[in-house]
């Protein structure tokens, strides 16, 4: 269902997605959501905002293989995570998304701090997407200052300023605030998508699932923003 009058001037409808860099379902879900938005005649009415959420804030800062991270956190047979990675790789590739199973895993706090800086500069979505997409394609190691500063420069940030952020603890409060706000809204895992602060979806939905949520959001959209009441899964 699409807006019958796409030329109508209406207030922006904000779609927020709590997400973590290394979450494969966040990667797939983001692209499905963007496809659903692009499929609407009024797609330019939607404003997509990514929000920080650290799935494992206690993860080590030294990168390790996905298998090593799984054994350290859960013990047992690493083949479980290998098989899961192969399944989502096949799914992602079937949707035209590159997906490397040889990614590294590490603490994402530094990435999120630079992302928050990028948000301040108006290029948060561009920075997050560039780094995440190349990370899953196997083309970028996001756990080095060189990689993050170079990625920042590609979206218009000062590479030197990115290095300054990484050298200290700037924007840690902003990351923490995103995490805390997400939990208040019911986030237990990611991706967690909030449509105009009136509807929420936990997990990566199908393109059709996102499309239905967008249609429902538009159909019930007030002329002015209203405070959220409670979230529900579409």
UniProtKB/TrEMBL annotation:
Q: Which domain of life is it from?
A: Bacteria
Q: Which CDD domains match?
A: DsbA_FrnE
Report domain DSBA-like thioredoxin positions.
Answer: 14-215
A matching Pfam family: DSBA
What this protein is called in its record is DsbA family oxidoreductase
